[in-house]
Amino acid sequence: MTTTALFMNQALGLAAQALFLSSPNPRVGCVITNADGDVLGQGQTQRAGGPHAEIMALRDAAAQGHSVVGATVYATLEPCSHHGRTGPCCDALIAADIKKVVASIADPNPLVSGQGFARLRAAGIEVEVGPGAEESRELNIGFFSRMIRKTPWVRMKVAASLDGKTSLDNGVSQWITSDTARADGHAWRARACAVLTGIGTVLEDNPRLDVRLLDTPRQPHLVVVDSRLETPLDAHLFIAGRAAYIYAAVQNDAKKAALEARGATVIYLPGAGGKVDLAAMLRDLARREINELHVEAGHKLNGSLIREGLVDEFVVYLAPKLIGQGAGIASFGPITELSQAVDLEFLSTDSLGPDLRIVARVTGRDQF
Fold it and tell me: Which residues, at least 6 apart from 292, have a Cβ–Cβ distance to it below 8 Å?
């Protein structure tokens, strides 16, 4: 392994530590080394409004008494060049008299998008781009999706029996999969900016849809598709400290006011047939800085999202059970030819306790 690959891998490992922390900002890691290959400082992006990875690495070096003059910086994303919640990282690196910056990939944010590299080069800093690009993009696929497609990366989680049933015929679904699978599902929730469900799930299960089975520095926001504003005012989903967005199709200003008094934000987005315009909802969520949208819904909403081509990826937990009659994963179609099926690419298959986890991506959805 080359020196560049070694330090970039270290930076990527730091970026992964920001998985549950940095949203809606990208997950970025940074390592600063001297000419002898000694690590002077390192860090990862903090909470939104907090320091970015480069600033954390510069502070780490200073705290250890290291000079970074003439040093090399390994960063998993282009140093930012704009004033957002914090100042430009490229200016901090220029002021620190860094000699070289190795970055994995350009920042897709139109406010940056190569300008950070340009400013570094204009200041006489050597810039190399490319090492670790695929890994960095994958770690931040939701951020890239929001910046380029103007929609979140939509990941649908499903827990089912081996014959694809998510509940019994009488609606009972707790619990088809094991404790191990459920804990893993909470980790996928924790990395998302928001969890999406439908009013059917709210009324039938009254879920909290928060992260409870692992420690997390932040709770994902909640999104409910509720065409007729039927969400109960005493629903468990109202949790202090997290945003709740409820999308409706039928105007009911009295109920809207009551829900907003509980802390929710109600958005009217009527579509065809008295339903919420789901594509418009995704665009609106992107404007609200949602990078990754984690879907945990029933077969009807799942089917609508799939039918409209709005799902990018699936996380499916299969239990070693056969249920027979019951609700399926998604209700859409019917299709008349196999060529109309949704083509998927298996990214991984893993055993989790007695269950199997499959991560599958809709073919071509990551080509943006």
Answer: 23, 141, 142, 152, 153, 155, 191, 192, 193, 194
Choosing from 54, 78, 135, 292, the catalytic residue is 54
Q: What is the pLDDT of residue 85?
A: 74
User: Is residue 86 scored above 80 in pLDDT?
Assistant: no
The rounded distance, in Å, linking the Cα atoms of 362 and 89 is 35
Backbone angles phi, psi at 153, to 5 degrees: -80, 120
193-230: per-residue pLDDT in tens? 999 999 999 999 999 999 999 999 999 999 999 999 99
CB burial readout 112-122, b (16+ within 10 A) else e: bbebbbebbee
The amino acid at 129:
V
Q: Indicate whether 170 pLDDT > 90.
A: no
Q: Which has the closest alpha carbon to 137: 365, 366, 294?
A: 366
Q: Does residue 81 or residue 126 have the better pLDDT?
A: 126
Both tokens assigned to 63: 């705290």
What was the pLDDT predicted at 328? 87
The pLDDT value given to residue 123: 96
Question: Is 54 one of the annotated active-site residues of the chain?
Answer: yes
Q: What are the strands of the beta sheet with 39-44, ordered from one edge?
A: 39-44, 29-33, 72-75, 100-103, 126-129
What single-letter amino acid sits at 165?
K
If you compute the radius of gyration of the chain from its CA atoms, what whole number of angstroms results?
Answer: 22
pTM equals 0.94
What separation in angstroms does the CA of 330 have from each of 146, 160, 264, 298, 342? 25, 11, 28, 7, 12
